[in-house]
Amino acid sequence: MPRISYRQARAFYDRCGRWLDLQRSLEDPAFDDLLAHAALPSAGRVVEFGCGTGRLAQRLFTDGLSPRASYVGFDLSPTMLRLSRTRLASFGPRAQVLPVSGPPRLPLKDGCCDRFLCTYVLDLLSPADADALVRQAYRLLAPGGRLCIAVMASHSSLANRAFRTVWTSLHRLSPLFVGGTQPADARVWLGVGWELRHCRLVCRFAVCSQVLVAVRR
Ligand SMILES: C[S@@+](CC[C@H](N)C(=O)[O-])C[C@H]1O[C@@H](n2cnc3c(N)ncnc32)[C@H](O)[C@@H]1O
Question: What digits encode the pLDDT tens for the residues 45-104?
Fold first, then answer.
């Protein structure tokens, strides 16, 4: 299926991004599960790709990161960068938010972090960019570090099948109607360098997410 370009993604999230938090009741159960398996108290440095409005980052600081831990989030949308910087301002220099553009390549050193988060982004990237992003996560994570992912997922329930029929039809008409997102299975991006620690389907009403935590060997 067609994917959206970087320019389209930036325009879409610049225009609609501020409304993203309205989906919080659909995403919070997946965030809860992800944070329960991210072993946050032992994290030293967290990297997030596609940080959006900074909602997950704010939860990290209020729900589990140690006072010594730091965070750096990346996004391609200026609106998202502004919203997340405003939201995280009270955490001072411990929270940094930086712009990215083009194929995923993060300007950080190998092994610089011990948690890499990516929620509802891999499911909108092209297959090549999703592969590249997971390779970046592998490069940036120190051995033993955790990759923590949430993606929109498929479930066999009638409600989710109906929801996906509508979603996929909209995506076919134009991927822009649904922000480029389509249901995915994040396990396909994990190669031999990863040990799968946690994989769960979390559904809220008709909408399902896959939450996955893998340890970098
Ligand atoms: C569906 S939102 C998810 C935001 C946030 N992670 C969450 O779970 O609420 C997708 C985010 O990824 C960003 N994004 C989309 N394509 C990107 C790319 N190629 N590089 C970096 N960020 C991207 C968007 O600007 C947006 O903030």
Answer: 999 999 999 999 999 999 889 999 999 999 999 999 999 999 999 999 999 999 999 999
Instruction: Judge whether 1 lies within some domain.
Output: no
Q: Which residue has the tokens 């965070």?
A: 71
Ligand 1 interacting residues, C-beta cut-off 6 A: 6, 9, 13, 17, 20, 50-52, 55-56, 75-77, 80, 100, 119-121, 124, 179
User: What pTM was computed for the model?
Assistant: 0.97
- Looking up residue 180, the CATH number of its domain turns out to be 3.40.50.150
For residue 103, give the ligand 1 atom closest to its CA.
19
Give the range of the structural domain holding residue 115, as residue numbers without chain letter.
6-216
Domain count, the chain: 1
Helices (H), 17-157: 24-36, 55-63, 78-88, 127-140
